[in-house]
Design a protein that fits this description.
mainly alpha, 487 residues, 77% helix
Length: 487
Amino acid sequence: MEWLLLVTPFAGGAWCFWIVQDTLRRIVLPLTAAMHFIFTLLIWNGGLRQTTHGWIGVDALGMTFLLTLSFLFMLVAFYTRGYLAEHACPEESGRRLSHEAVFTGSMLVFLGTMTLAIMSLHTGVYWMAIEATTLASAPLIIYQRSSRSLEAVWKYLLICSVGIAMALLGNIALAVSASFELKAGAMPMTFQALNLNAGVLQPIWLKGAFAFFLAGYGTKMGLAPMHTWLPDAHSEAPSPISALLSGALLNCAFLGILRANGILTRAGFGDFSHRLLVLFGLFSMLLAGCLIIRQADFKRLLAYSSIEHMGLLAIAAGACAQTHFGAMLHLVNHSLTKGMLFLTAGNILSAYQTKSARDVSGLLRILPVSGMLWIAGFMAICGAPPFGMFISEISIMYGLGQARQWLVLGLLLLALSVIFIGMSQIVAPMAYGKPSITPPIEPERHGSLWRNLPPLILCGAILMLGVWLPQPLSLLLEQAASMLGGS
């Protein structure tokens, strides 16, 4: 079943490249995404498998990431069907390898590479998968073919390539740290084997490996100061792709950092990796707070919010064991919330034809559904009750209090306060006030089922996680949280 899950998106992507009819291609995309989600549920229900010598598999930590990815991608794929219908190029209709064919094919290949990254239990396979996500997502960012999107994709490729090169140095350092213990032959470079043999790894090389991993995969994750590609890419990419970049791709890079942190914890050097995670996390949150204030572009606003929450996840992963469950819950909540916000931003952009927050007002009158989703998303992303992110942020802060990390808790609260004030000054005028445009002649064009139902489902999901956490999901998150300590 694991191999079927892995092959399905690549097969669907290859098919989309060669399909001539636009209508059929727009069916294949959500159908493949739905199949991917069904296979994910079947694997979860059938029991998680992790073997010492296996390179591909799913453990509790990977399943948390995989379930989040698959659910989000399925909803984004349904949204994309309506998005493509609105942004169709009539002159390319009926052409093989048209611009739309490249977009849909690359989108499914992107899903395949992210799935491979999550299912990779070998350090080398994981590194190759993360590099493949960069190549697969580049055509998606440049879909609109504007000068700004071209600049964004080149920055994305250049900075992420430098980051992945640093991660490769981390792999080399990790291999060197394991090469000193060869009593029973070469040590397999799988995450589980490294965890089991963490006590014999060479400390200097192991610490160096984590530093390179944090800088390399942290670049792809969007941690400051390696975040500079993220605002441009998220702002210039089509809204469904922005939802995937923020809600799925950043998580894939975070997974590698978590697995490396687990190895150092098992080796007895957790203090080293934990301090670095907290330091980079705090810096990311504080910098994001400064950049969010008076941000003019509402899609860039969401991008800086992603940097903030990646920083919060880094803090929760590195602060103490009491914050690990909150970290896993927050990862799920952030992905769903940011997916909802970017899809809603796509509807706003479609109606107002601008990304400038100053030029958008009266949203609740022009697009009532998107306006309510925009307000709900703002409340959710800022951790207001009764949304799921309130529970996860409270859990993290309670864990910090239990561990008596008052300085970290104080700085975290300061960053959250600044971000809340900064975002409220931008979001509120967009939703209320006199409409800045006349109502569209065809309101159903911007209120179609394909464009509104996916963010509504995501809103319902994060609302549910705020009032009720299903027992199977809670158990999975607890198992994943226990793995952050290197188990």
